[in-house]
Records
---
Amino acid sequence: MKDLVAGKRSRSRGDETDDGTAGERRRKTRSFWKELPILIGIALVLALVIKTFFVQAFSIPSGSMQNTLQPGDRVLVDKLTPWFGSKPQRGEVVVFHDPGGWLPEKTEEPNAVQKVLSFVGLMPSTDEKDLIKRVIAVGGDTVECSGSGPVKVNGKAMDESFIHPGNTPCGDKPFGPVKVPKGRIWVMGDHRQDSQDSRYHQDQPGGGTIDEDQVIGRAFVVAWPVNRWAPLPVSR
């Protein structure tokens, strides 16, 4: 009889232990679902802060920067250093806001989900009023290109090994000499015959140059697709 009673008591303690474990699991599950919205909120805030002050992704929409960048590439842009007074430098690939009239009217609006994810930095920018080009000359420089080139900055020929194969340095638009005003930059695409850059906007305010304040930041790496991952060095 003593053995039977002991056995019953042992089973009772085991049942209590099982019930306690199950209850603990249920509490943890409820706690997880309660905390999930908070965790998502924190992640979105962090993503927004990173996008606003540190790094932002941009999608390449055209072939104007081939072969350095291909349509559909995703690049990461450094937005931090401009906060500390860093200015665009010759040879950098930069993203900048359309100064006005450089881009055609938008024909397709992103959907609500794309807008939200782009806003917080979880997908490349959907703002089609941003462009990406290479800085050729900065404030105070004199830039020119005649005949078949080369492009000259302050009378010195540039080494432009990055130009799209088959293109000439001037493309089909010789220009200059142009004196770049202080605080502005002269930009060109690497695909000279497929880039509506500074050369084509000399009749607009600024004479084809871009205000440094319109520069979002320097593109420093191709992040997507994975098989095209590569840093974007500054070409001097």
---
Amino acid sequence: MLRTTIKNSGLKAVINHKGAELISFTSKDNIEYIWEGNSEFWGKHSPVLFPIVGTLKNNQFIYKNNTYHLPRHGFARDLDFQLIDSKESQAVFSLKANEETIEVYPFHFELQIWYTLKKSKLTIAYKIINQEEVTMPFSIGAHPAFALPKAFENYSLVFEHPEVLKSYQLENDLLSDVTVSHEMNANKLPLTYPLFEKDALIFKKLNSKKITIIENEIPLLRVQFDDFPYLGIWTKNNAPFICIEPWLGYSDTVHSTGNISEKEGIQFVEPKQTFACSFSLEIL
């Protein structure tokens, strides 16, 4: 399985060419911050969600009166990317539309993913290039899982700003109208497994663009997601990881018409144009 490693004086990141997936992010003292991918809990590390985030109603969408079928989170995470540029501290991967993708997502596109290390930070940038003569609807999201080697209750998430935390619950993998409020203490959300008994916490609106993972009040890692309006937070019961997921889009709602151009949270890139966004992981 092809992998590419990038590094600087303090950090190292390893990216799998399948899905252009980050599978390791370590500090100079060799502490691993990315979940190992043990399939007993969840066999992935940090998949890229494209051209949809979450689940479509009946796993299908309508575009120009035609129906197309897409699995949960799309196809990018399961396809091989090409390494198109590589330096010591940067690697650029590309996925282009092909006959297989056009059958399920009828657009000619290129998805580039740029991994760049600088000082204590890994920046992950997405470029969605529309090669069509028509506007292209899409969503993209990150799904990094961060390793939590100690007992889960030792960890909390600290939000950049005060929040009235209200997450939307899933109903048969679709976004319902049911919301749950979460108690915070000084911008801090303590992690417990019962938080996730109804699956992911999905936030449509946050004041914060930075979330810090702390272990017994010691800051470990910060996720910054200025370009992403939506966020998912997720783990599985008894699993030693937490996912902090910046999204441009989310699952269909229970009220969805199926028309992708009317989909809540959908993004658009104009003909022959490029949409760019990025987020970063910083070791503290």
---
Amino acid sequence: MPGEKTAERRQVADVVAERIEQLIVDGVLKSGQSLPSERRLCDKLGISRSALREGLKVLRGRGIIETRQGSGSYVAELTGPRDASPLMHLFSSQPRTLYDLLEVRALLEGESARLAALRGTEADFVLITRRYEEMLAAHAAPEGLDSQQHAHLDHAFHLAVCEASHNPVLVHTLQSLTDLMLSSVFASVNNLYHRPLSLKQLDRQHSRLYHAVIERLPEQAQRAARDHIHSIRDSLKEIEQEEQRLVRATLRLEGWA
């Protein structure tokens, strides 16, 4: 009967949509990423093209998938326009927010590192290693990259650790803070990376975090992640105090005291 066929088609579409949604939640498909070809998706999911198209139609209706004329389908920006958020603007416009953000990073990244050491798979560790080695290679030739590129490599390493936690809510929470998170990484890059002693310290901290995670040492991984963020906070505060002392001394020298 026509009604039964419609219900069956709707059920298949919902099942396909849920399977693709799971890939997005698990971070296999990421916000803004183009979907694989229909043929590849059908092969991977073991479904027909008609079932796939019905499932994508459901996801488009939910705002999870966008189709762009001439370029295919993409995962939508699920966290919304971060740059347009008044709250994000207020956060990014206030310098003191940097230290608040570092507190949040210490909490979230400490827990994600602990979970990564407990739950990470060999595939996760391959990705973490790849990001770690890319970051180290950039540190070895700092004149070759600008601060923004260094910051993205640093952030990519920490995000790879977080993804190995296999806690989708934790991963998406950190991803929703990407713009603010990168502002704290930019601060450390701009203020610490050009200082040889600070760069060596950062490399040691990243090394402790990396080895604790891939050697499956959860408590050490959590402590390494938190110590790393706390060290960045303390170093930036010291730089800030140095600048304030310099300003005061200059004013006294020029007779403004």
